[in-house]
Amino acid sequence: MAKFLEFQGKEWLRKAGLPVPHGRVASTPEEAKQIAEEIGKPVAVKGQVQAGGRGKAGIVKLVNTPDEAAVVAAEILAKTVGGTPVQQVLIEEKLDIKKEYYCSFVVNGAREARSPMLMFSTEGGMDIESVPEELLFKVNIDPINGLQIYDAIDVCAQAGIPAQDLSKFASFLTKLSQAYKKYDCQTLEINPFIMTGSGDLVCADCKMEIDNSSVGRHPEFGISIARDLPGAPTELDLIGWSIEETDARGTGFLMNMGYDEVSPGCIGYHPIGGGSAMMGLDALNQVGLKPANYADTSGNPVGSKIYRVAKSVLSQPNIDGYLLGGFMMANQEQWHHAHAIVKVLREILPTQKPGLPCVLLLCGNREDESLEILRKGLADLMTPDGPGKRIEIYGKEHVTDTKFIGQRLFVLSQEYRAEKVAQGK
């Protein structure tokens, strides 16, 4: 799902006519101070990362003056949460909180539902998992007509909202439901939304996740990659998305794993299928190697698409090896992989990465022909002193043997790194 940061989600809520606190985002302590001065009263300083429990992580603070906002912003911007550095802080007005509430709109995948669902609780501001089941009220929503006002009133009444406030709460929830549908959300969670001392309902937080399949309908979002990523897209992520976006024949998924480019033991990782991918990760983990990336070419893609993915994987700087992990008896024609891999290795190894370990495991339909294509196409590279001297080719005899494949890659990568050190590279 394409995920928005809190300040981004709140901006789209504001455009949909929903109440959000006054404020904006800052990237430096100086900007934080300026925004706090513009607001002119106590503010909240909130680190912007894709992570829950931000209060517990110490990146949400309340301050009284612009100078305090600058100091706290500097502290928060120096933090890393869940492996992600905090690069922005949201500076917004401190709210006069009378009571906190929770609501979220999600997809109910149960067979008897298969519809959007509203979850509502008068216990907001807590981890939803810690809210007692009897205090969490749910209602399925008609996917065509959205949340009806009478359903919203009913769920609020069940939760114990006073009669005089039912209309206010129901109107707030139905408007959120309309935004959920309008923006093609997968999840829209407001935790908490609050009632102020004057009785207004305000979205104090916002978690908004958009259905990847709908991104093409929303150019206004400016989403460059309709894909789940741990952080901002890297160059490799953009390359991988361009492959998949322009060629729908089979899968050509490719993404960066956020590794340190100078760290030893990173392997260019190219599995074939999801189950195969898990077994390949086991092979790497068993010997202490790390995947530099995640790639997948399954669903019977054409050779040209496999070539583009494999070349992107192999072009990564400082990798210590390449694993083509076909840990499944694939029902696709494997000679497409064989032709693509031969072409890529003949382009990469002689001039860019001579001696790079390449463990190629390929099995399934047309396996014998595919292995023969690999052996013949790479034979002149695989001489003892050739640029492909560390290429090893395996078939179905090792289809589930993750320990063997991992050990072979480990031994070869150790030789390769020692050779590079000896050459002063």
Automatic annotation (TrEMBL):
PROSITE patterns: ATP_GRASP. PANTHER family: SUCCINATE--COA LIGASE [GDP-FORMING] SUBUNIT BETA, MITOCHONDRIAL, SUCCINYL-COA SYNTHETASE BETA CHAIN. It comes from the Bacteria. Residues 10-234 form the ATP-grasp domain. It comes from Desulfosporosinus fructosivorans. One of its GO terms (molecular function) is ATP binding. This is Succinyl-CoA synthetase subunit beta. One of its GO terms (cellular component) is cytosol. Gene3D superfamilies: ATP-grasp fold, A domain, ATP-grasp fold, B domain, Succinyl-CoA synthetase domains. Keywords: ATP-binding, Ligase, Nucleotide-binding, Tricarboxylic acid cycle. InterPro entries: ATP-grasp, ATP-grasp_succ-CoA_synth-type, ATP_grasp_subdomain_1, Succ_CoA_ligase-like_bsu, Succinyl-CoA_synth-like. The keyword Nucleotide-binding applies. One of its GO terms (biological process) is succinyl-CoA metabolic process. Signal peptide: none annotated.
